[in-house]
Design goal:
The structure holds 2 protein chains of 2 kinds. Chain A contains 8 helices and no strands. Chain A is mainly α. The longest helix of chain A is centred in the middle third of the chain and has 26 residues. By secondary structure, chain B is mostly helical. In chain B, 54% of the residues lie in helices and 0% in strands. Chain B is built from 3 helices and no strands. The chains are: A mainly alpha, B mainly alpha. Chains A and B meet through helix 1, helix 2, helix 4, helix 5 and helix 7 of A and helix 1, helix 2 and helix 3 of B.
Chain lengths: 182, 76
């Protein structure tokens, strides 16, 4: 469909979550923004192939995810080096303890296999249905469900059993959310 | 720290595929906190301008906006 004003607004409205997804995937804010920019350019260049009435965020996430996957193959080593660097890229600085917990969480997330991490983020943070997540990742719904389950189990093992000193109360969450009102 | 550790393992030991609801919800909260932290930053100017520029009639050259991405864009 042509790029109408309302479609443009919808694309803009999706940018904040595209960035959040890109940062979750890449662990690096600068790379994430480059990914988002590339995604927007691709989307606008291919806007004719977007089906009116279909799920625009899912379409955009699919583009971003595919860009990341092809980029990731090229940069695998850099991505591995990026472990632990994520927190430095954040603008908000929660209190020291909460910040440490937050970094631990981020670090654990980066230890997940790529497939599991993206499935967990799409379903657990972006709020996509299993069906949409499956379509974004180009796999079966059951595959997404099992990836999400394995991701949760692995995170739990990393954070709350092996590294159980990280098992803090919900302070992290409160500090990080701080003032958003929910 | 030691106390927390034993406490944590006792009350919330995750089975192979069976996480306690408590741990599930803790993971969910942290995941969303991390994600929403970025979402709340809104739309950076560079993206708002990029889309505005591409949208404007005759404005699709985007001299600055497309940066180094030109070689990949619209050619494949």
């Amino acid at each position: 469909m042509p790029l109408t004003n309302s479609l443009r607004d919808d694309i803009l409205a999706a940018v904040p979550s595209l960035r959040a997804f890109a940062i979750s995937l890449s662990g690096n804010a600068d790379r994430a923004d480059d990914l988002v920019q590339e995604t927007l350019l691709r989307a606008l260049a291919n806007i004719d192939s977007f089906q009116p009435g279909s799920n625009l965020p899912a379409w955009l996430f699919t583009i971003l995810r595919n860009l990341f996957r092809s980029d990731y193959r090229k940069r695998r080593r850099e991505v591995e080096d990026a472990e632990g660097n994520y927190a430095k890229t954040l603008k908000t600085q929660p209190s020291q303890n909460a910040h440490l917990e937050f970094e631990e969480f981020r670090g654990a997330l980066e230890k997940l296999p790529q497939d599991q991490r993206e499935a967990l983020i799409l379903v657990g943070a972006s709020g996509f249905s299993y069906e949409d997540a499956a379509s974004i990742c180009g796999c079966a719904v059951g595959t997404i469900k099992s990836r999400v389950n394995r991701a949760r189990s692995k995170l739990a093992a990393l954070l709350y059993v092996d590294g159980a000193e990280d098992f803090g109360p919900d302070e992290t969450v409160r500090a990080v959310i701080g003032g958003s009102g929910g | 720290m030691k106390d927390l550790k034993s406490q944590a393992s006792k009350s919330t030991t995750p089975g192979k595929g069976g996480l306690t609801p408590e741990i599930q919800s803790r993971i969910g909260h942290q995941l969303r906190a991390m994600y929403d932290d970025v979402v709340r930053q809104g739309v950076p100017d560079r993206f708002a301008e990029l889309i505005k520029k591409l949208d404007a009639p005759g404005g699709s050259q985007n001299e600055n906006g497309a940066g180094g991405s030109n070689d990949n864009n619209g050619r494949d």
